[in-house]
Amino acid sequence: MHNNVNQHGRSAEPGVASEGIAPYGDAHRGIAAKRKKTTTARISQMRVDGEKIAVLTAYDATFAAAADAAGVDCIMVGDSLGMVCQGRTTTVGVSLEDMLYHTRCVSQGIARADGSALIIADLPFGSYQQSNEQAIASAVQLMQAGAHMVKLEGGDWWTVDIVEFLVQRGIPVCAHLRLTPQTVSALGGYRVQGRSEEAAEKLRVDAGALDNAGASMMVLEMIPTELATSITSEMKSCATIGIGAGSGTAGQVLVMHDMLGINLGRMAKFVRNFMRDAEDVPTAFAAYVAAVKDGSFPDDKLHGFL
């Protein structure tokens, strides 16, 4: 007579859930070694040490836990969810309530997996532009939902003022400079920014001001590789995270759906499909992390802009 024995050495009757086995997978299983929590101090040290920072978006508990297990340093709950989850054509329609829901999902997934990734949540369009008071009210809600850092777009004086206001009150901030999806219409569409001498100088000035205001991280999106590398070298303490900004930044970020080769539009030049050579999603996540860490992604000739 066959005796069913589970991995804990206890007998299990056919069709009966074994003791200690979670019904939708054990979030702890498969993690080879427990990593230390990723903190703002850890990000700062990685920047100093020259260790590349691997950032990936996620919008739910399961994918967040899988990304964490693959070694992703930071998980970004981006307002890109408006496009990849909600089917919108821009991020403008994403509400603070949407961001709170998805931030809670990601936070609970990381907690269930006893994960280590730092969670960055976007302040959506209209949730911080009105005043410093509006910005901190929105940021506090995101932090209470499980975020460890909030992200906001823009580099004008009022954005710098908001960053400083939030940082002084204990809220870590990730800035975001051109291309800024929330203001894509004002920028003339999804195109490379900072190509003219005047535009490049403004980006330098804005980046320096955000660095001085206390931003811990700064996403540089769709700007020439040489400019992004130069801005990175000028930062006093802020870690730059590139997306379509070449290999010279302190780290990289991609939208999860893009790097898995699935989206509702045309794949951007700066994206690499890591699912193409992977047997499953966790393997693709691990390949992404490895490629960011060893510098093989992005390849400036394939993914960068002049």
What does it look like?
- An 8-stranded parallel β-barrel has the order 1-2-3-4-5-6-7-8, surrounded by 8 helices.
- It has 306 residues and is α/β, with parallel strands linked by helices.
- The chain starts with 39 loop residues before the first helix and ends with a helix.
- Strand 5, helix 7 and strand 6 form a beta-alpha-beta unit.
- The protein has 11 helices and 8 strands.
Tertiary shape: globular
Hey, roughly how much beta strand do the residues contain?
5-15%
SS-derived structural category: alpha/beta
Q: What kind of oligomer do you see?
A: single chain
What is the chain-wise order of helices and strands? HEHEHHEHEHEHEHEEHHH
Helix content: 25-40%
Kindly report the spatial arrangement of strands forming the biggest sheet.
1-2-3-4-5-6-7-8
Strand count, sense and barrel status of the largest sheet are:
8 strands, parallel, barrel
| Total E-strand runs | 8
The span between the termini is: 70 Å
- Mean residue pLDDT: 89
- The total count of helices amounts to 11
Unreliable parts: 1-21, 27-32
Radius of gyration from the alpha-carbon trace, in angstroms? 20 Å
Topology (SSEs and partners):
Elements: H1 40-49, E1 53-57, H2 61-69, E2 74-77, H3 81-84, H4 96-112, E3 118-122, H5 132-144, E4 149-153, H6 157-168, E5 173-177, H7 197-213, E6 217-221, H8 225-234, E7 239-243, E8 251-254, H9 256-259, H10 281-294, H11 300-303
